[in-house]
Amino acid sequence: STPLVRRDGRLVQATWDEALDLVASKLKEHRGRVGVVASPKLSNEENYLLQKVARLGLGTNNIDWDGRSQHAPALETLGAMLGYPAATNNLLDTRQKAGCVLTVGESIYETHPVYAYELQRMVRLTDKKLIVVSPRWTKMCEWATLWLAPKAGTEELLVSGIARVALDAGLIDRTVLDGLADNGAMYLSLLAGAPYALDAVSEATGVPARDIVAAAYLYATGGQNNGPVNLPQPTHPSNLPVSKNGAADEMAGDAMLSAIRSHEVTRPESGQFPPSTIVFSAWGPYTITAGTVAALTSMALATGNIGRAGAGVNPLVSDANSLGANDMGAQPGYFPGYRPVNADNARELEELWGITGDAADMEVPAEPGLGLAAMMAAAFDSELNAMWVVGANPVAGLDEPEARRVRQALEKLDFLVVQDIFVNETAELADVILPASSYAEKEGTFTNTERRVQRVRQAIQPVGATKPDHEIIAGIGQRLGVPLPAVSPTQVFAEIARVVPQYAGMSYPRLDITEFVDDAIPMPAATSYKQLKIRSLMWPCTSRTDQGSPYLYADGFPTASGKAHLWEGAEPAPAPSAPMGGDTLRATVGLPLFPFRTGTLSRHSYGLSRVEPDPRLHLNPADAMRLGVENQVPVEVTIQGAPASDPVYAVSLVYDRVPEGTAFLAVTMEQVGTNAAVRTAYTQIMADQTGGRKTVAIGVKPAPHMAAREELEPVATANVLDTGLQPL
To answer: Would the pLDDT of 482 be above 80?
Structure first.
């Protein structure tokens, strides 16, 4: 609650002027060799000010936020293909208006449980169709019309196979595709290639051909049609496991293709089927690859599901203001408004900021900076001398495989300042700690995953001597000579509207205007209607008369050609084979529902810690038998590439909804911060986002004991991790 400065090796209290003077002088001393870590927990105004101070006052584009690298494959792919690196539609539309919802990859019930709950309620109570594509059974599979369980890493191939079936069935509008895309013909010729034939895709992914066909028809028709009646019926999740080739064994090759092409689908009089939407988590260890996002986006465009309400491709970002941090330019390769870092944009930014260019020390740098992982590597090699960390905890983050290496990198710095509301693992190493106020103690705006900009209003007075982040950042910027707007968030947002084109029509008074939106909630015997009270605008909002954009691309694409650029294909990479024999197999790694991000906050909750205090290893019965592991017993898990001396101790959960040959390791966030094996697994998986190999090799054996937390009581909740198993 008060500033702390390290003197004689100890952190002691200091006044704000003492702390800010010291921070400004030290950072100025290392100008150009400074790394700045922003945060999605900050408001738009604060992230904007932070990147401005970094670029003008510290002469660097070395600014990033913890976790951005996990979102990058999805968001940057969407930006390159369609124009904006963000979700195309709003979430109310996706659950109200979509006839079919396709979710891929990470379980949104664990990454975004509130939205997932709303979605499953609509699926249960209406005729909405839900397709889940996931190598493991998740909570969403309970309500799915269809669960496709591909081998981990073959999702891109599976999506292209689904699009190929839609092409063969005549469900792709080639005229629309040619009009909206600059490489539509090439995309269709790629789909027609042998690697994407139905039987080839079924064999490579392990998904039954009949299920691929059903998914293609359901998605392309907005849930109106599930394919030829003379094909075997789609496999329902409750009937799994099934044989690897399924219907391909019964009706392969020409016979299957003939059945698809001869199946007539009656189009509605409007010419368009009900919309279908794609929703997936853009973060987490099982984040889908850039190639998969490209394949999904191309399929959506080819089937007429871009530029419509209730349709689109919608990546769900993690923290409350992850998208806003990107919008404000808190990233090393882009200025505010997604201007790429280059000389022309740097000079444009100087004009917008009123920098004449006469003062060389105020020139905006025109070369891309370092991302967070690269900053840590540079600090470790003594190429970076100082860091300013705001609202982040890199020691417990996921950008480096070893917390010890991050600690060593930060300890090598000449100066480290941490600005946060709690003393976390990173703050313990700081030379100066600046105590910030929480979101409830300040004003500002946040931009959520659907591009919706909303006000944050002060509810309580700042605790102790803490200050809002924008005041702290402005105080340092003013000491560095950076021309800043008035400290008021209102004035900062006015400058944002002038600099960021997508926000040009927004202002605090406009964000305070109340809009009432009808929400129809189907019930078993009736429909309940309520009005949602909304005060927000969705970017792009380019003028004072613009009402915002609930969905994108209805009038074209903001690309150089004015058209979308579709998936260009790649040689399908074979999925990593599961080691058979001995005590090894392949595993995906993820988090359970209960912790949040680095756990700085959620680890303080005694209730959450009791629900799942230890990791869980989900196994197929055949693998468990081979490994000599019984249900709900301690196991020792070693991860290839990590020290064998630092294993993960977990509890086994054995059930048949885990595909044979693949395990799922649900780890606690505390282990991500402290266990070298877990961090190695995360790093290996995230490094393979372009290659699609999202599993790690693990060794499993029964453990005579387990390093459990003695201070916690045994788990006493039913249905651990939604498996339906009895509690421990």
So the answer is: yes
